[in-house]
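Notes, Module 5: Reading structure tokens.

Key idea: the token line is not a picture. It is a compressed description, and you learn to read it the same way you learned to read a sequence, by spotting repeated patterns. We will look at two proteins. The first is printed below with its tokens.
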Amino acid sequence: MAEHRSMQRAALLDAARTLLSEGGTEALTFPALAERTGLARSSVYEYFRSRAAVVEELCEVDFPVWAAEVAAAMASADGPAAKVEAYVRKQLELVGDRRHRAVVAISASELDACAREKIRAAHGGLVAMIVEALGELGHEQPRLAAILLQGVVDAAVRRIELGAAEDPAAIAEAAVGMALRGVCS
């Protein structure tokens, strides 16, 4: 029974990812989740009490996966500048991932305080990954530099998500250039 519930919960989360990535937050409804999974609408409530609960669990499940991918890319990089580049590039590579599109849709929606805090904490974990490399590059305030660097990454993500006129590769190059050389390059 526990295994069946676990599989149903995973199916609901997968359906939620698809709904969010295809139609944004408006698409994430319990009737739509029920339809995608073949469950009765009332059964969806047995797994999640609200849309916010679905969002919270998606963050708990998906964000560590992305963070691990970013950490692995940084670990394979040689030297602090290469780690910064890997940090930026890997996050931008993940933009096309369905899990990422889902969380972008989530972050644009109205969430309860608990869900917003979980998203903030997850982003804080990403920022913490790069602090040491920025310190090694000589930044006097590596934590502040990391926060600002994540702002550059977030702006590049939004630009790619919007389907901007620039090619995603050009956006990635510009973001890496800003990360490594600032706006003077």
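Here is the second protein, with the sequence above and the tokens below, as before.
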Amino acid sequence: MNHAFPCGTLPLDFVGTLRARRNDEPMEKLASPELLDDWFLESGMLGLAPGASEADLALALELREAIYSLVAARIERRPLPAEAVAEVNLHAAGLPVTLRLGPDGATRTGTAVQGLAALARETVEIIGGDEAALLRECARPECTQVYLDRSRGHRRDWCAMRTCGNRVKAAAYRARRHGGKS
């Protein structure tokens, strides 16, 4: 698997395809059309690779950054950037992914542009709805994954316990143990 899905929310997991945004050299997980195809397959959004092109990849990266701009604005309680709103709305107006029932169950097929339209529509629902208040960015300094904090007290600090949460807790434990041995 080339991609991770710690959020359980596809547009936010899509934003996470640019890892460690605050670093001098973030890690690009969508470096080729093939990796974009892999993302659609691994996410379960599409059952067959859409055969993304370089143009599709460019559109995907533009949409990803527009989604991140909107999420950051909501987190920081700033007005939504007009350019990002226009980009997401343009994609959201696109054709939907095709859903078909067959002998083996449901299958989802479509082009990369149709997959991006689905991501944009879900983004509109998140940013424009009540869930926008639940948007957070991981507190681990090396991680910039965004997520919806659906925890009971809305005090979750990291994108996923099994990754960032464990790393933060282990580092704090090591610091306490090392500090106590001076």
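Summary for the second protein:
- The chain has a mean pLDDT of 90.
- Residues 9 and 80 are 20 Å apart (CA to CA).
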